[in-house]
Amino acid sequence: MSGTDFYYRPQIELAERLARLAPGDAPKRVFFTNSGTESVEAALKLSRRHTRRPRVIAFHGAFHGRTYGAMSLSGSKPTQRRGFSPLVPEIHHARYGDLESVRSLFKTTCPPDELAAIFVEPIQGEGGYIVPPADFLPGLRAICDEVGALLVLDEVQSGIGRTGRMFASEHWGVAGDIVCLAKGIANGLPLGAIVARADVMDWPPGSHASTFGGNPVACASALATLRLVEGKYMANARRRGDQLMTGLRELADRHPAIKEVRGIGLMVGMEVRAGGAPDPDLRDRIIELAFRRGLLLLPCGPSTVRFCPPLCVRARQVEVGLTLLDDALSAAEEERVEPSEAREAAKD
Ligand code: PLP
Q: Residue 222 half-sphere exposure, CB side, CA atoms within 13 Å?
């Protein structure tokens, strides 16, 4: 049976829990989905319906999902869009981390009184694990309040304890009008949710629904997950994140391939360069060589390696991961040595 039609206890308990956890004093309402992209889709529909305005701002480098609304909001890679047009109209993109670029849209293509919402990842994930400047999220909050638009925080990747706080936006003391969740919320079972201010989620029954969104098995898993995240894994994310960042910065002192190490908690990015310029090939090679040594990593952005381990990762596992990475970096750097230099080195 569907939670759209009948209530069941785990769904109600989870909704109450998420409503309590989400930042902001206003009462909240929750809508359940099965995935991140569906959460973003629900937030887009709700933003337009509630404000009765058509336009939305999102950011270059953003990734919000693969269904039409979420894909149209994304600004990460051409391959995610190629061949799928026409996309959802009236979506404008600004530069991530740059408030002035948002304001300049108001003077050019986006009348502010037509703006329904700004969609933003508190830390940009797919776009390169980018931590924005300190004034960015508070500035977006202020702009939304000024023009009567909603601030929608996509915490699909950054939420549920990953950064050492339940929601990444807490690091900046910012509350969204709608928060999108999925990924870690049910520890691998398909579940997503939006948590919105109660006065914002004012659509009547039937406006939006999902048969399996918030099914009892996924909700039970989410309740157990949240207990563990709050109980110990959020603190673990802080401790292991510090360990990982310190270790990566030590590696950066010895490996010229590492340009920058950045992140919060267990959402950590390592930017790769060669001769001062971003180098996607070198980044991909490091990931391949790490994989052969038993360390699984993912890329993000043009030339960043992402570290996104389980929140239960142990100190020893971080240590081993750093050792394997050290070795992979050395191997990748050696491959890059010019053949003549390699011959000279062989003579020595
Ligand atoms: N939003 C963000 C920030 C994401 O990182 C992702 C997935 O990577 C999504 C949305 C889409 O989530 P899903 O793959 O569950 O649809």
A: 32
